# Entry
Amino acid sequence: MQKEFFSNAYTKSLYYIHFMKQDMSSADVAAVVAELSAGPKSIIDAKIGKIYQPASEEIRINLYVFHQGRDNLVIEAGKRIHLSKYLRASPTLPQAFPMLLRKHLMGGRIVSVEQHDFDRIVKIGIERGGVQSTLIVELFAPGNVLIVDSENKIILPMNPVTLRDRRLRSGEIYELPEAQLSPLKVKVSDLLGAFSRSTADIVRTVATRFNLGGVLAEEVCARAGIDKSKPSKEATEEDASRLCNSMHELFSPLFSVRAAGKREEQTEPGVDYEAEIEPQAGIEPEIKPEIGVEGEAPKLKPQHVKKEVNGKLETFDVLPFDLIRYSGFENEYFDSFNTALDEFFGKKALEQVEEVKEAQKKEKTLGVYERRLLQQEESLAKFEKEIGKNNTLAETVYANYQVIEELLSVLNGARAKGYSWDEIRSILKQAKKAVPAAQKITNIDQKTGTVTVELDGGRVNLDIRKTVPQNAQEYYEKVKKFSKKKDGALKAIEDTRKVMEKKAVAKAAKAGRKLQASRKKHWYDRFRWFVSSDGFFIVGGRDADTNEEIFKKYLEKRDLVFHTQTPGAPLTVIKTGGEEVPESTLQEAAQFAVSYSSLWKAGHFSGDCYWVKAEQVTKTPESGEYVRKGAFIIRGERSYFKDVPLGVAVGLELKGETRVIGGPISAVRKHGDYILEIVPGAFNQNDISKKIYRIYADELNDPRFVKQIASPDQVAMMIPPGESDLKSQKPERKGERIKNEGEEYGTPEVENEPEDDREEIEGEFGKGFGEEVGEKVGEDTKGEFEENIKKKSEEIIEKEAREESEEEIKMHGVKKV
# Structure
């Protein structure tokens, strides 16, 4: 259905926005570089073929790998790099950037793959005809891909850009971004220095100062046994030592630091520097994979981490090794990190392309209102994203209150002394090492008087003329603005749906009615009821009054009575008509009894029940006791059904009498033409009834007809008490699925047990379980059922009570008088 498609697409987009990992971390880059440099996934000495640009930020390099054959290296600027089998279609006309890459790289061989200083920068060394060049991939936001010559001069960038301290344009010398402290070379003194200059807590300081990000920073704190929320300035030397060792332990499977020059041994208390190598002065180190004597890649544990979202396991992170903080989640392991990345990023990217194509196809067939609804759903997703983003930025401003206040004070002081913005930029560049706050400024806009500051992994725009609270309030105002837009979008969506429904009704009326409602009134309409797959009629009470009415008016001696072992269930009666009842009908009656009991409301998925003969049910209490309305006493032996699964279906019966029916799944499937299965869930009775009505109205494309036979109020009569959900959003049509009865019920165990002890069972229903369709019973119908109803003799009951071990089961309790 179109509305269902829009809703699912909207939910899925929100899931991607809020939960899934969006780009690779520094550790991810290190792991993939390790694999691409050595081992079975190595691309060293691979020959470069054609290069494509299937998307604005993505390039794909065809490779011929020695002894392995053809492969594809996919690079998405600011996001990912890995070998891939999920390939987007190549554009018909190639762009200028891939054509220039072909000119300089095609036919060349890859001689090195390196990560720069544990940063999200990958350098791929290429040799072609004796000419050396390097493809540089920047995987931090906003991302870039550049080719530089042997003198480090930029030949062409994918995205030409001028930054505050770098110019990434053709002919310019490529400059690396300012390096942060590397966790691979960290010392206790580095940690203590970072903590002394930080105003944030330990985990934020570790995440931002050591290029780790939130997930790995929390992992480091967890392994070190350090309270992550502890203020940085309160960190002790012991804390720093434990954190230092934790970082070395976390990343030890991945790397060793190689440098040109001698190893300078460092001795500092509490730190193990066995694997640490210091570079010679003036020589920049490169982080390379830890390769053994046979050139094997380090042993990783590539994996996807999954969690349950809307009842379904969804992958939300991809990792090269195990993390303690994810120990409670489900993991799926892969033979290589390249494969794990491809299944996470590559597969999702291709799926999104297919979804866009499908949406475009659908859009061509959409009418005016359907297209409008699609646009409104997309706008709603954007508003949700903006609300989340601005809330996060406002909280970031308050979390870094002291840092921002110091920064604004320095900038305002400089402006007050007459410094120009160019002079301020020059001073900040020189003062970066001395003033920690200056390191956080990434851009200055002199026209608006704002500065862009890097805080907690995000970029915050600050107006230097305003205070810290005023800057935070700017973001909160945006939250309010987008919240109003969101409310407006929701109202617009609801209005559009109403118009679409009216149009559908008018269209059906114009085309002529194909389906005609044919309903009769029955004495059992005000009760719960169904017809078993074997044709037996089963009826049950809805509350104390209807339980009492069924017992007094419609219970015959030859009938069978069901009730649950736990309190709160309908008096369920199989009208046998004197015939032998097959096992399948008994099972369906058992499922009916447990599904419409308090077990459903309590969120259970199975329960026990039993059946007895009608003659074992009485209203006569023991001396000194009384039985309330809707309560009954059962004496004698019971036959049990153990672990009966809860589950009902609501269907439409369109042949003969047109009506909504409900009950056990197998029975509804036998008689219904459309079936929706219901399980315990999160929607209340009214909401799930409306949802079922809309689904059937859309399926039959005739809302007026469906409203006549299955309005929300009529559907609610078939829904169990409590909260429910649909097993599928698409109705099952008759004949689409055939199941054995044993598959439906799982062959419950039936036991006969003599009763020795007395217990009380409440079978009382609460109020508000749907409207009762009350009507007087016709004389003919009454005669059919009342002619065989006989009064139970108190003398016979007392005799039975003396002859056998008896148990009294009061469905609404027994009270002493």
Observations:
- Confidence is low (pLDDT under 50) at residues 1-18, 256-295, 738-817.
- Residues 46 and 383 are 46 Å apart (CA to CA).
- The longest helix spans residues 468-511.
